[in-house]
Amino acid sequence: YPTWKRTLARRTRESQMKRFCKAQAIQRRLEEIEVTFRELEQQGIKLEKLLRDENESLADQQTQWTNQLLYLVQKKNNLMSEESDLMIAVQELKLEEQQCQLDEKLRSYMNKEDALKTPEDEKAEQEILKQLVEVVNKRNVLIQLQEEKRLSEL
User: Which residues form the signal peptide (predicted)?
Assistant: First the structure.
C-alpha cells in the first residue's frame, strides 16, 4: 500500500472528523439559540402585558419597559442573524462533504489506466466531474452570499 495512499486516506479521515466536530458545534449553538429565543419571547410577552395593563403607571416606568422590550427585539434580531449564518455554514459543510465524496470517486476512476477503462467508466467519470463542478459552484454561491451579508451588515 503506497505511502501517498495512506497519507491521502489519513487526510480524508482528518477532514471528515473536522467537519463532524464543526457540525456538532453548530448543532449545539442552534439548540442554544432556540432556547434563548423562547426565553426572549417569554420576557417580551411579560413586558408587553405590563405596558398594556399598566396605563396609569409612571411615564418613567413605561419608558423603562419600552427600552427593555426594544433591547429584547435587538437581541432576537442578532440571534436570528447568527442562526442564518449557522444555517449557511451547515449547507457549506454538506457541500464540502459531498465534494470530498465526489473527489474520492473521481480519483478512483482517474487512477485506473486508460486502457482498462470501459466506455461506462469514462461516462461515469465525466458525470462525477460534472457533479463536482456543480458542487463547487454551489459552494461559491454560498461564499458570495456570506460576503454580501457581511458587507450589508457593515
Answer: none
